[in-house]
Structure formats: structure tokens, C-alpha cells
Amino acid sequence: MIGSIIGTIIFGAVIGVLARLVIPGKQAMGWVITVVLGIAGALIGYWVWEGLLDKGDTGGIDWIRWIISIAAAAVLALGYTSLTSKKA
After folding, report:
1. Mind listing the pLDDT tens digit for each residue in 10-21?
2. What DSSP character marks residue 3?
3. Given a cut of 60, is residue 76 above it in pLDDT?
4. Is residue 33 a contact partner of residue 84, using CB atoms and an 8 Å limit?
5. What local confidence, expressed as pLDDT, does residue 73 receive?
6. Rounded to an integer, what distance in angstroms lies between the CA atom of residue 78 and that of residue 46?
7. pTM of the complete model
8. Is the distance from CB of 46 to CB of 69 less than 8 angstroms?
9. From CA 80, how far away is CA 51, in angstroms rounded?
10. Do the beta carbons of residue 42 and residue 12 sit within 8 Å?
């Protein structure tokens, strides 16, 4: 149980950082928000991969699931940035 939680946090951190790398420009968010949005993106990626596409565990690295997770985290980061940015 604890191992799953720690693994999810680490996976979410990686996904969050990769999502921020694919977004052009500077995002005004800290590392905690990056990890939280990465975790949310990873969970969305898992849900899409297993629930909608019905792929499950393939026994290897699921590159498409990673791409879906990064895309979901990037969309969440863009949404967060647009909601929290100060407009003059």
C-alpha cells in the first residue's frame, strides 16, 4: 500500500515535469502543484488506457499510456495557469 502511494507520487512528479516541458513559455506554479497535476494526469492516463481503451497491463513500458498521461497533465497545467494568472 505505502509502496503504491510512493510510486504514484514519483510517477506523478515525472509526468508533471514532462508535462511542463512540453508546454511553451513559463508557468507560474511550484513543484507541489506540478506533482499534484502530474498525479492527476497519470490517473487520467491510467483511466483512459485501461477503462476506455481496454488495454490493461502489457508487461512492458506502455508508451501510449505515458503520452496520454503527459497530455492530460499538460492540459491540467494549462488550465491551472489560466485560472491563476493575473490579468491586467
Report:
1. 888 999 999 999
2. H
3. yes
4. no
5. 95
6. 20
7. 0.82
8. yes
9. 25
10. yes
pLDDT digits (tens, 9 = 90+) for 14-50: 999 999 999 887 877 888 999 999 999 998 988 887 7
Question: How far apart are the C-alpha atoms of 9 and 3, rounded to whole Å?
Answer: 10
Residue 83 in grid coordinates: 485560472
Query: What pLDDT shows up at residue 87?
Result: 66
Burial 4-33 (b: 16+ CB within 10 A, else e): eeeeeeebbbbbbebbbeeeeeebebeeeb
SS3 content of the chain, % helix, strand, coil (to 5): 75, 0, 25
CA 32 vs. chain centroid, Å, equals: 13
